[in-house]
Structures are given as C-alpha cells and as structure tokens.
Design brief:
Rossmann fold, globular, 7 strands, binds NADP nicotinamide-adenine-dinucleotide phosphate, KR_dom, alpha/beta, single chain, seven-stranded parallel β-sheet
Length: 254
C-alpha cells in the first residue's frame, strides 16, 4: 500500500505515461491529485479515474500557467508537491538536427518547466515551503547522436535544477531532479533506437515517488543504465565523443 507525506499534488503531463502513473500512485496513497496537460478531454478522463481535478494548460504559455497556479491556490489551497513532468520528444523532419527542432524541445522541456517554477516559487515561499520535482532524462547525461534537440533540453534542465537547488532550499523548497531511462509510454512508441531496461510507467512512478519522498536531489534509474552513463560522462570529452561515435557505428548508424 502506497503512502505519502504529500496531501496536494500537481502533475503536469498527467494525462499520459509517467504522469498518469504518478497520478494513480499519489491517489492510491490518499493525496488530492491535480492534473494538467493540453488535451482537455483526455485530461478530464485521467483526472476522473483518480478522483482528482483537471486544470488544462499548455506549458509553453507562461500566462496560462500563472493563471492555473492562481486557480489551484484559490480553490485547493497551497500545493505540497508539484511534479513538472510534461515533456515531448520530436522526430527531426529531415536528415539534419535543425535549430527549429531544438527550439521546439527547449520551449516545452526547459522553458515549460521554468514558467511553472516562476508561478510556483513565490506561492510556495509565501506558504512556508514545498517540493518541486523536475522530470529530466538520462538522455541529458551525455551527447547522444540523433537526439541533440531532446538531449540538449534535458541536459539544460539538469543544469537548471543543480543551479537552483541551494537557493530554493533556503526558501524551504525541496527540488528533485528525476532522470529516468526508458519507460514504455506513447513518447517512445515510435522510437527507432534500442530501449534497454525498459520500465513500465507504474514501476517508474514508484521509483520516482520513493525518491521524491526521501527528498534526494536526483532520482536516476535504472541504475544499470545510469552508472555506465555517469562513467562515460566522467571521461575526457574527446574520449567520450570517440567512444559514442564508435558505439553508433557498431549499431549501424551513420
Ligand atoms: N518515456 C520515456 O522513456 C522517458 C524517458 C526519460 C524521460 N522521460 C520524460 O518523462 C516525461 C513524461 O514523458 P512520457 O514518456 O510519460 O510521455 P507521454 O506519455 O507522451 O506524456 C507526455 C505528457 O505531457 C503532456 N504535454 C506534452 N506537451 C505539453 C505541453 N506543451 N503543455 C502541457 N502538457 C504537455 C501530454 O499531454 P498533451 O499532449 O495532451 O498536452 C502528456 O500528458 C517527459 O518529460 C519525458 O521527457 C520519458
């Protein structure tokens, strides 16, 4: 039986995949669950399933996020936990990784989180504190071929979390970075690369929730993927890029 110290939990990207599994986890643990994403119909259905409430929004719209945060505080009261999980991975349109592709990823995966943080931080500070989890990815650990848009946005998000951690802690706001490996969700359904150590959304949600509950800075899983990537990251960059290129050649990449 799941338990949680959080009474009011807001999850962006709560209509699908990891967000939806987290919603189920926190609802089962007795929390009031508030969900956000763009498709209002899908969101309503997800919220109904967990006995929670739907607050549709697009994370790329700072005004919309500010408005939803205001509504949540007014109707529900201060949040104990916000999981900023909404994210996207776009296929590149042609042969090249373009600036346009990078921009789309940064808008959702980085700025979408930063806008939400702008709305949450003053409110949580005024309420005496809170917890905010940012969902990044192991893909941000090293520069992987053919994923420069997505990977750059997740690497930047990890930097952002690290840079803000101490400052937020002084305001009694616990910041946790979540770095999952592969999770079986619609996001990776059309993935062309191998997806080793694939987790179900429910198993991923359990690992994420346990880490957030403990108040650690980073929840990274599976360890079998996280550790080799950490070791790769610790190498001199010129060795790392050569090793990654050799690995890609072996896997038949160009
Ligand atoms: N699956 C993996 O293997 C994996 C691995 C590492 C990290 N992650 C990260 O985990 C998070 C959740 O991914 P997932 O795999 O659960 O993906 P998913 O099943 O595709 O769910 C993505 C969620 O984000 C919402 N969303 C997308 N763009 C949005 C926007 N502009 N504004 C508001 N909501 C938006 C989607 O709903 P709407 O489309 O209706 O808005 C949906 O609820 C992402 O940050 C992803 O990068 C996933």
């Amino acid at each position: 039986m799941a338990t949680t110290r959080f009474r009011r939990v807001w999850i962006t990207g709560g209509s699908s995949g990891i967000g939806r599994a987290l919603a189920q986890h926190y609802a089962d643990a007795g929390a009031r669950v508030l969900l956000s994403s763009r498709n209002a119909e899908k969101l309503e259905e997800a919220a109904r399933k967990v006995g929670g409430a739907a607050y549709p929004l697009d994370v790329t719209d700072p005004g919309g996020i500010e408005q939803v945060a205001g509504e949540i505080w007014e109707r529900e009261g201060p949040l104990d936990l916000a999981v900023l999980n909404a994210g996207a991975a776009f296929k590149r349109a042609g042969r090249d990784d373009t600036a346009e592709n990078l921009k789309r990823h940064l808008e959702i995966n980085l700025l979408g989180v930063a806008y939400a943080l702008d709305a949450l931080r003053p409110r949580m500070r005024a309420a005496g504190g809170g917890t905010i989890a940012l969902v990044g990815s192991l893909a941000g650990y090293v520069g992987l071929p053919r994923t420069s848009g997505y990977g750059t946005s997740k690497a930047a998000l990890a930097y952002y979390a690290e840079a803000l951690w101490a400052e937020l802690r002084r305001e009694n706001i616990q910041l946790t970075l979540v770095s999952p490996g592969f999770v079986k969700t619609p996001m990776i359904a059309a993935n062309e690369f191998p997806t080793p150590f694939l987790h179900t959304p429910a198993r991923a949600a359990l690992r994420i929730a346990r880490g957030i509950e403990r108040g650690v800075f980073e929840v990274a899983f599976p360890r079998r993927l996280a550790w080799p990537l950490r070791l790769l990251r610790a190498l001199p960059a010129s060795w790392r890029v050569a090793l990654i290129a050799a690995g890609e050649r072996r896997m038949g990449g160009r």
